[in-house]
Amino acid sequence: MIEPIIQLNNPTLIYGPGSTGKSWFGQYLAVLADAGMNSGGLGVEPSTVLYLDWETDQDELDSRVTMLRNGLGLDGPSSIWYKHMTSGLSADIETIRGLCATNDVQFIVIDSVGSACMGEPESAEVVLRAFGALRSLGVSSLCIDHTNKEGSLFGSVYKYNASRQVFECKKDQQPDDNKIVLGLFHKKANNSRLMKPIGYELNFSDSAISISRQDVRDTPLEAQMRVVDRIENLLKTRPSGLPVSDIAEELEKTESHIRKELSEAKKRGLIVQIGNNYSLASFTPEINGTEIKQWQL
What we know:
It is a single chain. By secondary structure, the chain is an alpha/beta fold. The chain has two domains: 2-221, P-loop containing nucleotide triphosphate hydrolases (Rossmann fold, 3-Layer(aba) Sandwich); 226-291, Orthogonal Bundle (Arc Repressor Mutant, subunit A). The protein is built from nine helices and 16 strands. It has helices at 22-35, 58-72, 93-103, 113-117, 124-136, 158-162, 227-236, 244-251, 255-267, and strands at residues 2-3, 11-15, 43-44, 49-53, 81-84, 107-111, 140-145, 165-172, 179-189, 198-204, 209-214, 242-243, 271-274, 277-280, 286-287, 290-291. The strands form four sheets. A nine-stranded mixed β-sheet has the order 5-4-6-7-2-8-9-10-11. The chain has a three-stranded antiparallel β-sheet with strand order 12-14-13. The chain is globular and about 70 Å long.
């Protein structure tokens, strides 16, 4: 429904610590779906949206939606339906089902999953009951959730299992800065391969918020990418290649760690070794007149 993040008629889960911008991003997707507007590298199907809110109130959501619409250059009010939630999703599912049927809702935002479950977060039964209720609606959905003290998805593993796509949300924000760099790190995909991290920059003003697509490799969040991706990014800037020691120094990793990652990348045909240097296979260098076989990344 929203390519490549929200699968049609399936739940997508985005989780992260508080204040990472995940609710802002969920509201951004809601605004795009409501307007039927492609933006930020996203392909969007027009959809009637229902926002189920356990976190704030309608005044705050209205304010945020207005700021997002201003940032997108949209005039007038939105058509997003709103419901303030105080009980669990499964307990209120018949009311929600009626809203969906009456208003032809195709996209629901759940903010947030912990409150929607309304029970012990480690309980498989509680989580499965909430996701079963959500699936019974037959709509596309975005489920926003939090992390525990260790930085992992909070509560039962069945949240992860019941979602068709899962993204971990990370951010970089400097003190007194009016922008957030947000990264979505793809953790699970049922119907596609895992994507490389997707980055966005959120810029705030008094009356608007503008959101633009960013390459995570060009942001401070690059340090949180997989090591193999960081090696690839580094070698793209060094066509002649680098030895293990230089790669390890640049990425602040041990040489043994880098050798292990390079070995796996060589097996996949992503990287070639020429003498003591490692290069991207796609650069097709020529050594002593012998062409090294090209591989598509």
